[in-house]
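User: Structure please.
Assistant: Input sequence and predicted structure:
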Amino acid sequence: MNKNLYTSILVLCFLVVSTAGYAGNPDRQGEAGASELLFNPWARSAGLHTLSTASITGVESMRLNVAGLGRIKDSELLIGNTRLYEGTDITLNSLGYAKRVGSNGAFGVSLVAVDFGDIEVTTVDRPEGTTATYSPSFFHMGFGYAYTYDNKISVGVLFRGISESLTDVSAFGFAIDAGVQYVTGDKDEFKLGISLRNVGSPMSFNGEGLSFQGPAPGRDNVQLTFNQRSENFELPSILNIGLSYDFYFVEDIYLRAMGNFTSNAFSLDQVGVGAELYFLKNFVLRGGYRADVGSLTVESTGSQSIYSGLALGASVEVPFKRGSEQMLGIDYGYRATDPYDGTHNVSLRLAF
């Protein structure tokens, strides 16, 4: 594939995501639903404040930039647990699998579920609570595919099903993610990534929980069941543009610096910088800082992000046996929050 074709593909991707993206708008804060699509269940990218649009690979790429799915060596299995907003008792449980298909393609599937714990039922007559409890069921499942052209350009698309339900009320919807990554340099040290996420049709709630009984018009002695219609809500669309560059000290020790811009359709835009320090392919330290664009107006709008800026993380990866390409990895990520006591991510990763 020649240089002109590379350039044409990149320009086309820029045009597509640019026309689909929205400028950040704090006045629309709270108008979108399905906010669980914005939660990051994976520890490596969480330790970078989800700034690794350009360099993310494997199963985790299905959360940020599905184009990175095509850069796995063979197969990858990832299991994750997240203590979301420490002190709220909300957790995320996640499972993902990716597999190379042919010489240039890769397929992946991921499942993320939100565990709210047991919530006590309250009623109009008993606002202090009853002995009964309930737990909402929020989960989404994604199926992604990525293709890599001559190890330089990767493109990917992901289809995601979204489900939110209580005992008698539920909503279901679909979303599409798309992304591209461009890699160049003698050691693939320069990377560019663009992704567009959560583009889909509006969702709405339906079910018996939205019905009530009342008198028929003009006939108070006759009771009828009325069904209320819930208002539609949009999905939280996001556009990410990221860059990264690897600075090599020696062959297997290098620093990866990165920057990322996020355009949120329903809140303030965000910018961030991060870095990863790689030791001998087995140990990684990482950190990032992210800030809202237009933060001078945050105090008046009250729309600031819950994440206060800092994120830290680390990874340890060891082979199953000496000289083996099969690896076992443990990842940890921490993000500071305001309020609450931060978000903690832990992932177990198998590459085989």
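Residues 3-20 form the longest helix (18 residues).
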